Amino acid sequence: MTVEVRPLGDKCNIKCRYCYQEGIRTAGNVPTRYDLDAIMATLDRLAEPFSLFGGEIMLTRRPDLERLMQLGFDRHGGVGMQTNGTLIEERDLELFRKYRVRIGISIDGPGPLNDARWAGSLPATRRATARIEAVIETLCREGMPPNVIVTLNRMNAAPDRLGVLCEWIGFLGSLGVRKLRLHLLEQDETEGGEGLPLTAQENLAALRRLRRLEQELPSVEFDIFAEMAAMLRGDDARTSCVFHACDPYATRAVVGVESDGRLGNCGRTNKDGVTHLRAGREAFDRQLSLYRTPQADGGCQGCRFFLACKGNCPGTAIGGDWRMRSIDCPVWFGLFEDIETELQANGETAISRSQQRSDLEAKMIAAWSIGDNPTLHSLLQQAEAP
Amino acid sequence: MQRISFSGPQARALWQPRFERLGEVALAVELEMVRQGRIPATLVWTGYDDIEALTERVRAIGLEAKPVKASLGYAADWPIEASIDEPKRLLDYAFLIGPAPYDVSIAEPAADDLEQTAMRSGYPACCAKSWAGHLRGGGCDPLANLLARDDRAAMPAHFALAVLGVGPVRHAPCSVHCSATRDCSRAFLDLGRELGFIDEIVWLEEIAGWATEASLVNGIAEITTAAFRCTWLSDEGASPHRRLRHTLAAPRPVKRKAASVELVGGTEILVELGTGFEAAGFASPFAMRSRFSAIVWEQTAALRRAASAVHVGCGDGLLLELIAQTRPKLKLYGLEEDAALAGLARQRLGASLPVLGGASLEALATLARLVPEGVDLAFVDPERLGSHEALAAIRVIAKSVIVIGTDRSLRRFKDMDTYAATMGLALLPGRAARVSAAIAAMDRLH
Question: Top-level CATH class of B267-438?
Fold first, then answer.
């Protein structure tokens, strides 16, 4: 479980054209103040490592930010932080070092490749991008290389720009960046992202190119490919939320601690500008429905990758309706096929091709039906036990 | 089993306790309806631990509670006095509540007389017929089915929220237009008022005005109001994709138009990112851009104080462009000996920003004539500058000289202080890993 601390909710200093939180901001559902004591009390109660998140977390008053960092350091030996990087200043470096802050920075590429992360005007956008680039280099030089999140879109991964993106990622590797997270652009109710999404074929081509790049750059790792391979091996202990049967009413992988200390959900499924609170209990209605619903109707019936994929993130569902499978299904399917083929060629058995697949599916469905969500790993161990 | 997710802390603080209270009131009103003979019987679901309290309560008002047979589609088919294992506490149990002693037709409702059974539980005739027909046709969740119908009429909130069991609608209506259901609803509210549940009936009347959005997609029902959203997995309508949107619960966000950004191809992008990186001492255009960005970032305070700045050896003008983006009002100058790069700099920066060509000392002399009062900041790579005289001339023109570290110089000298010391310069104190620094003093230049 990832605990995301969001003192200022979705408040942000830039307006990325594709941001999934923009609906919330447009609807005016952004807190203007926060209760730090309540937030810290909730974190005490949860007793889980946490990440500082937003919106943009660096909009938080520095003394308050330091208290949160200190809490993370004292209780868990460090704290994560996801930021757009534009508000980081030189004085912050010492805080990051002192409290072992693991920083994740979102940027889609250098200069014009990052133009979708809009800051109000083109000069402001370029200025913001330059600050992010500066911060990445500085953190690397200071021995605190950040993880980098890149969202693939037409600005940075259109066929004639993909080569530039790859070269830049190679440069990040030379700086010391080791981990990159690749996101596909999420489409929502705003028109801000119009014209930015790549087609499924372009997304797949981009991811395949980046996967080859990963093999060429041994020091750089894209989380997503390793996770997909792990899911096909049935090793789901450390894979990310999109592969873990997310319930949008009570997101299991991501728990938000909001401005007043209450628990919130991951915001990816908030398509109508409302940040809904967590429901009282988790359920797996989406996965149960997808499993039995024909693919032509937006389900996953008969898909051999269902156990690995589970319909992917509900925030990316077809038509913005969490009850449907991911609109990126063709992309994930293509990549799963690639990885499956390689695993098979290496003599490994992918669960998608395993004789145990239907039995595993039946056990998973039975578990979800009673509100349980066992790991694939545990089901495989049971199946292989004498 | 339905789940609720409130739209915010205020909505939850207000409506969660109200729903709990309304559930209690709904039971009280319904039991009173049975007691008064307005409806023959009612079906009540309860948790295992509350069974005893329920049976005692109905007995106290002259009614009887009887566990419902499996024929009505429930799982609890054992006598309530039987010993029950702990897992059974997880289940809800259905009880038919009617006047004691039970009429045989109520006590043993026949599977083939679903319609009568429904009517005995208070369904209007039309809804009972619809409900029974739906079950006979293989359906299982008439309310979910109602959500899925292609009926564009607005769904009254009380109809949709029947699923929560808070009243005043306590059955699955046959349609969104059902007048009999409206009559039932009115009777419920009137009786509630008679029984003294004044606040609670006011809440229900408020709910009646709520706009709702209700849909059934692939067997998952969802109802959304301004206060909450509610979902449940239904075996109803597992496919195809059926969705009915009623009036929206909340205004959808106004769609935001983004400013258009012109897309150019990869070759132009590389030019825009920076050319002449090798001459400037960098391994790639990305390295040059990143470093210049870091320099601007590090020198934020100095740039904020300055009114003018010059980049000596400005290459294609990238550093000046980045400075101009941060401080658009700053008066900037570029000096570049390489005519091709100077031309690129002029292209990048535009006519309003002077880029002086020629040999360094000559260009500096020109700059001194152009800006007799001098400039506040000069950005310099001493290694590229190459002569003590040039640096001395810069120090005459500029109030503060910022030494910048390139890939080449930092690879060779490891850090800025070593680099500066090798060049006979002393820098103002700062982070060891910085890539730029102001000169504090100059001893000699190699």
Answer: alpha beta
